């Protein structure tokens, strides 16, 4: 008997006889409120436990020999598709003019509606050995060339493009560029045209309106929570034209899902610079990019079940204790108020 009594003395939850318990309306109200609060907190903690969080880690980038995918989706509301070209150059010396692999363009009318789809390789002069695509491609030797050499087909094309400009045609350029993983730039401009053809069409560099809307510009697939700072950028020119330059710093990124699947991609930051056009440079939109030597690894993780149980006990136990104290205070207050009346 002594052992049993000793064990009973350790009971932290003593029971009272039913006839000694008194149930009150205030206690019922406090109990209902407490149960509602505990149910809400339980659902909140359960959602918190089921939601994954990300852990960021940085390390030196050891990858090499890979290509860099550039996803482009832009609209030029004031330039027809036939005059636009996408050119790319990198630090290794590789220079590509009028890239048309995996690149498409949509012809737009003056109201922005699609009127045609085709590859981005129409009406482009392929002989660019004498042109510099950093904007200054008017050499002294070219200034000595006369324009009387245009044939009938070229004159027809010039008339067609002048008519497209008069009709307010625009162009939407989209696709994927696969470039070498070194610093470089790509730009969208009228550099693909013969310089004298461009002079006949636009009658001066100030009439090349490179107003543009960047719907999407990214350097790899998207992962949950990524933010590309140039998405939704709108730059509209209402006076003289000029050159836009976007200086981009690319950060290689790996996103690791809970399933252990790895998604290689890139984040980037950007600064912007604009310069007005002059007689020596043709307006363009440049994207000059450089790569960071640091790789960011973003890993999805889930909170442990023991952590969930600990938080749940703390929240529910605290709520139960608080409602118990509130019930006692309300009972004593009501007893003090009702006692003189009785």
TrEMBL record:
Residue stretches making up the Endoplasmic reticulum vesicle transporter C-terminal domain: 154-327
Main location: membrane
Membrane-spanning residues: 24-43, 308-326
Membrane disposition: Multi-pass membrane protein
Keywords from the UniProt entry: Membrane, Transmembrane, Transmembrane helix
One Pfam match: COPIIcoated_ERV
InterPro entries in UniProt: Erv, Erv_C, Erv_N
Subcellular location: Membrane
The Endoplasmic reticulum vesicle transporter N-terminal domain, residue ranges: 7-96
KW Ribosomal protein (keyword) present: no
CC per GO annotation: COPII-coated ER to Golgi transport vesicle; endoplasmic reticulum; membrane
Family of this protein: Belongs to the ERGIC family.
Protein name as catalogued: Endoplasmic reticulum-Golgi intermediate compartment protein
Source lineage: Eukaryota, Viridiplantae, Streptophyta, Embryophyta, Tracheophyta
């Amino acid at each position: 008997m002594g052992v049993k009594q000793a064990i009973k003395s350790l009971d932290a939850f003593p029971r009272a006889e039913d006839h000694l318990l008194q149930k009150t309306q205030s206690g019922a109200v406090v109990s209902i409120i407490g149960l509602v609060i505990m149910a809400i907190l339980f659902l909140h903690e359960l959602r918190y436990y089921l939601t994954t969080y990300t852990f960021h880690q940085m390390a030196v980038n050891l990858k090499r020999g890979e290509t860099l995918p550039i996803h482009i989706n832009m609209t030029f509301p004031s330039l027809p598709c036939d005059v636009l070209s996408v050119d790319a150059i990198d630090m290794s010396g590789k220079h590509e003019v009028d890239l048309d692999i995996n690149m498409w363009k949509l012809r737009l009318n003056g109201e922005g509606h699609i009127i045609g789809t085709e590859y981005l390789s129409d009406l482009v002069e392929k002989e660019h050995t004498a042109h510099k695509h950093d904007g200054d491609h008017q050499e002294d030797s070219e200034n000595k060339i006369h324009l009387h050499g245009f044939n009938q087909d070229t004159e027809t094309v010039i008339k067609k493009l002048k008519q497209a400009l008069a009709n307010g045609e625009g162009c939407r350029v989209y696709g994927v560029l696969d470039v070498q993983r070194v610093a470089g730039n790509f730009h969208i401009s009228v550099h693909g045209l013969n310089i004298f053809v461009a002079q006949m069409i636009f009658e001066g560099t100030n009439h090349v309106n490179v107003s543009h809307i960047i719907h999407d510009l990214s350097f790899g697939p998207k992962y949950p929570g990524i933010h590309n700072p140039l998405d939704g950028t709108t730059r509209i020119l209402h006076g003289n034209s000029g050159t836009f330059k976007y200086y981009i710093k690319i950060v290689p990124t790996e996103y690791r899902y809970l399933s252990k699947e790895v998604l290689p991609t890139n984040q980037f930051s950007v600064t912007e610079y604009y310069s007005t056009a002059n007689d020596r440079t043709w307006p363009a939109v440049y994207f000059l990019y450089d790569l960071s030597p640091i790789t960011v690894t973003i890993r999805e993780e889930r909170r442990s079940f023991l952590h969930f149980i600990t938080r749940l006990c703390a929240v529910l136990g605290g709520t139960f204790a608080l409602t118990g104290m509130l019930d006692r205070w309300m009972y004593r207050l009501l007893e003090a108020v009702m006692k003189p009346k009785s």
